[in-house]
Design a protein that fits this description.
By secondary structure, the chain is α+β, with helices and mostly antiparallel strands. The protein has helices spanning about 5-35, 40-45, 140-150, and strands at about 35-40, 55-60, 65-70, 75-80, 85-95, 105-110, 115-125. Helix content is about 30%, strand content about 30%.
């Protein structure tokens, strides 16, 4: 049986290490770092498996649930499915995006707690991706209203 040259041994060892890392990513380490996108109904259906794991929750801001405390910069609201089946209370810290409104599509990133409140670390609003140049004499406020109509409010 022929012995491998030092160069081939290093190449073989490197290949084994790369395969081991690849296997670890697929079977163990990757799923712990992935953030899943769920609707409120899907997150509620996960039950105990949905608690304390990083999640992106997407839906609409339920009208009438937005409460802003400007002293603590704490925003509370509820996110509902488009069909209105699932509803989850959300607490977010920091100032919300300017376009944040009742009925608007949102994506919040954070963790769903055992107290059934979603603690948000990031709040993003979904808006229309439609762009059109302003018409002659049109004011920016008028264009903003059309963007909001496209976002579901």
């Amino acid at each position: 049986m022929a012995t491998l040259s030092p160069r081939r041994r290093v190449a073989a060892a490197a290949a084994v290490v790369m395969l081991a890392v690849f296997g670890w990513l697929i079977y163990g380490g990757l799923d712990k770092n992935v953030v899943f996108f769920l609707t409120p109904e899907e997150l509620i259906e996960k039950g105990a498996k949905g608690y304390d794991v990083p999640v992106r929750l997407g839906g609409r801001v339920k009208p009438g649930t937005v409460k802003w405390d400007d002293k603590t910069l704490r925003l509370t609201f509820s996110v509902v499915d488009t069909g209105g089946v699932g509803e989850i209370a959300v607490v977010s810290s920091g100032a919300p995006p300017q376009m944040f409104r009742d009925g608007m599509g949102v994506v919040v990133e954070g963790r769903y707690g055992h107290d059934n409140i979603f603690q948000s670390t990031s709040l993003m609003v979904k808006h229309s991706n439609e762009y059109r140049p302003p018409k002659a004499g049109e004011k920016p406020q008028q264009m903003y209203k059309t963007l909001m109509k496209g976002a579901g409010t």
